[in-house]
Amino acid sequence: MKFRIAALLGALLLASPLQAERLKFDHRLSPQLKAVFDGGDPGMIDFNDKNPRYVTDLIAIQGKSAKDWTEALLIVARTPDKKVRTVAAWVAELQGEGQRRCASTFRTLAEDAASVTFERRSSGCAAGYPPVALYRVVAGKQSLFLLGFLHKGQPSEQVQQQWQAVLASATID
């Protein structure tokens, strides 16, 4: 009996990583983003998993690299904690950070039971902080995810529509 329980627990532990939640989205909806992924240049992606409870990926869409960009995609996978447990709490944290950095306005573009999509427009920001961002925060069963487009200039209407389409395509797998 003890052997069966130990075997069952071992099987559950081995199965856990296979059942990890992932954020999926259709990168083909943005030709520039698709070109970056198809290009395979590792310098265009900055992956940071030093904190396994807050993993980030920054992908340069326009610019020389993930360190020197004008347009980028930010992907964050976060384990809920005492401070941020819900989509609403993360949205509030992001908006508070935006206001602390510089004068910012926010506009909710879409909202459902498991996600919020919103725009941030900022002015008077320090160098390096993008004045335009579009975010979608999505809740999974065990994780929170953020998909965000950042722009250090003024994106065209067409680019913004592509961003919105990519964000709307995001699902938890």
Strand order in the largest sheet: 2-3-4-8-7-6-5
Distance between the termini: 35 Å
- Order of secondary-structure elements: HEHEEEHEEEEHE
- What is the β-strand count? 9
Low-confidence stretches: 1-18
This entry's quaternary arrangement is single chain
- Major sheet: 7 strands, antiparallel
Provide the helix percentage.
Answer: 25-40%
- Look at the structure and give the mean pLDDT: 89
Features:
single chain; 173 residues; alpha+beta; two-stranded antiparallel sheet; 4 helices; globular; disordered N terminus
Q: How would the blueprint of this fold be written?
A:
Blueprint: H1 2-15, E1 23-24, H2 31-39, E2 45-48, E3 54-63, E4 69-78, H3 87-101, E5 103-112, E6 115-123, E7 132-139, E8 144-151, H4 157-168, E9 171-172
Antiparallel strand pairs: 1-9, 2-3, 3-4, 4-8, 5-6, 6-7, 7-8
What does this molecule look like?
It is a single chain. The chain has 173 residues and is an alpha+beta fold. It has helices spanning 2-15, 31-39, 87-101, 157-168; strands at residues 23-24, 45-48, 54-63, 69-78, 103-112, 115-123, 132-139, 144-151, 171-172. It has a 7-stranded antiparallel sheet, with helices on both faces. The protein has a two-stranded antiparallel sheet with strand order 1-9. The longest helix is centred in the middle third of the chain and has 15 residues, at 87-101. The radius of gyration is 18 Å and the shape is globular. Mean pLDDT is 89; it is low at 1-18.
